[in-house]
């Protein structure tokens, strides 16, 4: 009778997440997983076909962690601000996971974007926006929230929560004022001073 595996897939994935949290995604290898589990690298390949499957399982677990952090965000008003605050908090508290999910070579920002888009439904209804206006708001606020979060990965202390909240409010309020005014904004082109 074959011996039962000492580690489950979940154990291996949890070890992978610990490695990512401590040292970044690049540190995940069969050897580092074995070391984290106190064994050789062979358990990985009895539970998974190859290292690509292990990495994929770790990435999916990180995505579930992010989604769990965003749960219920659309229940807030304005939801997009709550989303922005939580995105920045995730980047500060889980910088290596944030980097793996949203800044790495295999980044999947569409996970965060789909959650942010859910928030726009409540913004559209709550502020009486057309779908085109809501899309314009999204296109202007999305890079602000993501940019602050990306900056927080390396220097979270530069962006206290109060400042992040105020920055998101200023951008949101300014964009909403422009949208509600119905006026076109001139595209200012830089010109060399004379």
Keywords:
single chain, 2 domains
Which SSEs are present, and which pair or pack?
Elements (H helix, E strand, L loop, with lengths): L8 H15 L6 H8 L4 H6 L3 H20 L8 H15 L1 H9 L6 H18 L3 H24 L6 H21 L13
Helix pairs in contact: 1-2, 1-4, 1-6, 4-6, 5-6, 5-7, 5-8, 5-9, 6-8, 7-8, 8-9
Shape: elongated
The biggest beta sheet is recorded as: none
Contiguous uncertain segments of 5+ residues? none
Q: Level of helix content?
A: over 70%
Beginning-to-end CA distance, first to last residue? 86 Å
User: By helix and strand content, what is the structural category?
Assistant: mainly alpha
Question: Tally the helices: what do you get?
Answer: 9
Beta percentage is under 5%
**How many domains, in number, for the residues?**
2
Number of strands: 0
Computed Rg: 21 Å
Order of helices and strands: HHHHHHHHH
Mean pLDDT: 90
Describe the structure.
The chain is mainly α and 194 residues long. It has two domains: 7-62, Arc Repressor Mutant, subunit A (Orthogonal Bundle), CATH 1.10.10.60; 72-181. Helix content is 70%, strand content 0%. The chain has helices spanning 9-23, 30-37, 42-47, 51-70, 79-93, 95-103, 110-127, 131-154, 161-181. The radius of gyration is 21 Å and the shape is elongated. The chain starts with 8 loop residues before the first helix and ends in a 13-residue tail after the last helix.
């Amino acid at each position: 009778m074959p011996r039962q595996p000492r580690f489950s897939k979940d154990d291996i994935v949890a070890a992978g997440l610990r490695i990512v949290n401590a040292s970044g995604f690049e540190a995940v290898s069969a050897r580092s997983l074995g070391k984290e589990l106190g064994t050789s690298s062979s358990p990985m390949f009895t539970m998974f076909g190859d290292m690509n499957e292990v990495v994929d399982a770790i990435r999916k677990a990180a995505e579930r962690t992010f989604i769990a952090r965003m749960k219920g965000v659309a229940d807030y008003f304005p939801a997009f601000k709550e989303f922005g605050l939580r995105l920045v908090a995730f980047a500060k508290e889980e910088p290596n996971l944030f980097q793996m999910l949203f800044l790495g070579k295999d980044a999947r920002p569409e996970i965060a974007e789909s959650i942010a888009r859910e928030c726009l439904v409540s913004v559209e209804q709550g502020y009486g926006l057309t779908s085109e206006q809501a899309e314009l708001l999204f296109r202007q606020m999305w890079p602000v929230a993501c940019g602050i979060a990306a900056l927080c990965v390396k220097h979270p202390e530069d962006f206290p929560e109060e400042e992040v909240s105020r920055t998101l409010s200023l951008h949101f309020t300014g964009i909403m004022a422009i949208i509600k005014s119905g006026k076109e904004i001139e595209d200012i082109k830089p010109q060399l001073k004379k």
